[in-house]
Specification:
tRNA-queuosine alpha-mannosyltransferase, six-stranded parallel beta sheet, Glyco_trans_1, alpha/beta, Rossmann fold
Length: about 375
């Protein structure tokens, strides 16, 4: 199958998703991507830009069997602007995130135009894929509430059609090398997430402060992508915990990123927004013990891990609860029983997300569009 893949925000997890799928797919992709910044502008102009880009390829004789796009494309707009034989192709939209439930940094009115674009794109597509059941559910719930607020012509019935064609396809991950012998030293704590407010770094660093005041020894690695506006707490934390830091900032190569994950004992999330949580999934695959709040997508994506031995992966979502859990794990690490009797449990459980399996499932789903 020849797939025309359109990604208005070709960076970060969006890029990793398409690159990973293509590398394992049996299908032939034409990937058109735009730089990953100024997301609002990308959502506004991408349909026009892609229509122009596609027109040039059509003139060169290129043809496709299906369209694949992310939630950041206005699919109806693109179909209205592109050649009729392209517009008539079956289309799949993949929801990495959505603009109905994405948390706002400040108390301000949500830009509902982008939220409505998400709904019309899902309505126009032949298939709607979500990265988790959690995401699927909260999007449809929020969309129903949103449309009920409209003064008239709410078209709330379109959600029935979206529900009927919506499925879950988790993103994939690459396999990680096996861990070597652990270096001596205290508990090594990893934060591997975007440096933005929705990942709730304030709670993470507040919990570390409690550990520090309690005299608990630990080492710290804080990695992940940052943007123009970085929450001030990161600079403050770098000064406060300077004598404990092993790694700080974006890891510029895959090798550095893998090394950071392989070195970690525990990987922590305090997120208030997470539709999948690929950073935690990768850390667990690399052998780190996850410590996450029992909310968002985590109970779903880490379900294969939960047992009496691994109940400690979930904390209550509070700063104090996280500090207590990390202190408990520091003690377990000293005793050499962080994972209990099954040290490979995390690595084995996360094999369900390896790209060879995920790509085959998505290839088959694309074939079913014909």
């Amino acid at each position: 199958m020849r797939i025309l893949a359109l990604e208005p925000y070709y960076g970060g997890s969006h890029r990793a998703f398409l690159d990973g799928w293509q590398a394992q797919s049996e299908h032939d992709f034409t990937l058109l991507g735009l730089p990953a910044y100024k997301w609002k502008w990308r959502m506004r102009h991408a349909a026009v830009t892609f229509a122009e880009m596609v027109a040039k390829r059509v003139d060169q004789g290129q043809r496709w069997d299906a369209i694949f796009c992310s939630d950041m494309l206005n699919l109806p707009e693109f179909r209205g602007l592109t050649a009729p034989h392209v517009a008539s192709l079956p289309a799949v939209v993949y929801f990495h995130e959505n603009q109905l439930t994405y948390p706002q940094q400040r108390a301000k009115e949500r830009d509902l135009h982008f939220a409505y674009t998400n709904i019309t794109t899902a309505y126009a597509a032949e298939a709607v894929w979500f990265n988790s059941k959690y995401h699927h559910d909260i999007f449809l719930e929020a969309a129903a509430t949103f449309l009920q607020r409209m003064p008239d012509y709410s078209h709330a019935d379109v959600l029935d059609g979206i529900h009927d064609k919506a499925v879950v396809h988790s993103p994939g991950i690459d396999e990680f090398p096996a861990r070597g012998a652990r270096r001596d030293g205290p508990l090594r704590i990893l934060w591997a997430a975007r440096w933005e407010h929705d990942k709730n770094p304030d709670d993470f660093f507040a919990a570390l402060e409690i550990l520090q005041q309690s005299g608990i020894e630990y080492r710290l690695s804080v990695i992940g992508e940052s943007f123009a506006q970085v929450p001030a707490v990161f600079a403050e934390a770098r000064r406060r915990f300077a004598d404990r830091i092993d790694r700080w900032g974006y890891q510029t190569s895959r090798e550095e990123y893998v090394a950071a994950l392989l070195d970690a004992d525990v990987a922590v999330s305090t997120a208030v927004h997470e539709f999948f949580g690929i950073g935690i999934i990768e850390a667990v695959t690399a052998g780190a013990f996850p410590v996450v709040p029992r909310r968002l997508a985590y109970p779903e994506t880490l379900a294969a891990l939960e047992s009496d031995e691994t109940a400690a992966i979930f904390f209550d979502g509070t700063v104090g609860g996280l500090a207590d859990r990390l202190q408990e794990l520091a003690t377990r690490q000293q005793a050499g029983r962080l994972w209990g009797a099954t040290p490979q449990r995390g690595r084995l459980a996360m094999r369900q997300y390896y790209w060879d399996r995920i790509a085959a499932e998505m290839d088959a789903a694309m074939d079913n569009l014909r």
